[in-house]
Amino acid sequence: MTQTPQLLQVSGVGDPALLQPLGIPVRVNLWTVGKNLHEQLFGSQSTNVVNPIRLSIATWANNEKGSAYSAEALQQIFQIQADNIINNNAPLAEILVSYGYPDLESAAFSRGNVKLKTDDPFMRPQVTVNWFRTAFDLDVQVAAARLARRVLTSPPMSSLSTGETIPGTAVPDNADRGFDNDWKNWLLDNYSAVSHPVGTAAMMRRTLGGVVNAQLKVYDMTNLHVVDASVMPTQISAHLSATLYGIAEKAADLIKASWP
């Protein structure tokens, strides 16, 4: 989400290093507002992913610390995300049946941020998503793309297809359903956002970089709630709509219960 952190920042809730140069009085020093942005994207190695994840968490957290509270905090978040993938068999990617057979990655480890460019609330903020900054995200896209090709060219789906047009010959087929470099080059040139961003006002402990507490209230604010996808600290292995309906229903109960 981009407008929630923008509204908080322009109101003086955020990182003083960002707000003060723009002439915005700092009301709450909450410098993780706008951080932890991550998005699902269309594009992916159907080989074992457990060891690469476990061995890389600390490195990924250190590389992404600029979009988090700290490397140590992000490592804890990544560990939760990894445990969900490894121990609970949470899907890493989804294959859609549409006019084509696109795949989307549902649990990226790359992190970005949202920052004001001006104190004008009607000006769009600067959004930096940092696609594929964690190389594992691109490996997942390659694996999902291979799987989509394998399914589309195997019965019974093959009987419904007249042949692959995208990427087609841009990624020549072979026994592995395409070479790594061919897939990576094509994906880097053709990926697109799913428009499922989360995390920029995350509900977490403040020591992990949280912006809202378990009551969905912004830390150090008296009665300001945030109720949208920005409060989700990590992606879920699914589309967001049903989860957001649940968050909204819970928020309604919390807000009603807080009134005298």
TrEMBL record:
Q: Per its Swiss-Prot or TrEMBL entry, what cofactor is needed?
A: FAD
Q: Please indicate if the UniProt record lists Signal as a keyword.
A: yes
Which part of the chain is the Glucose-methanol-choline oxidoreductase C-terminal domain?
Answer: 109-248
One term of GO molecular function: oxidoreductase activity, acting on CH-OH group of donors
Is Lipoprotein one of the keywords UniProt gives this record? no
Q: What SUPFAM superfamilies would the database entry show?
A: FAD-linked reductases, C-terminal domain (SSF54373), FAD/NAD(P)-binding domain (SSF51905)
Question: Which key words tag this protein in UniProt?
Answer: FAD, Flavoprotein, Glycoprotein, Oxidoreductase, Signal
Q: Quaternary structure?
A: Monomer.
- Similarity comment: Belongs to the GMC oxidoreductase family.
Protein name, per record: GMC oxidoreductase-domain-containing protein
Name the source organism: Ephemerocybe angulata
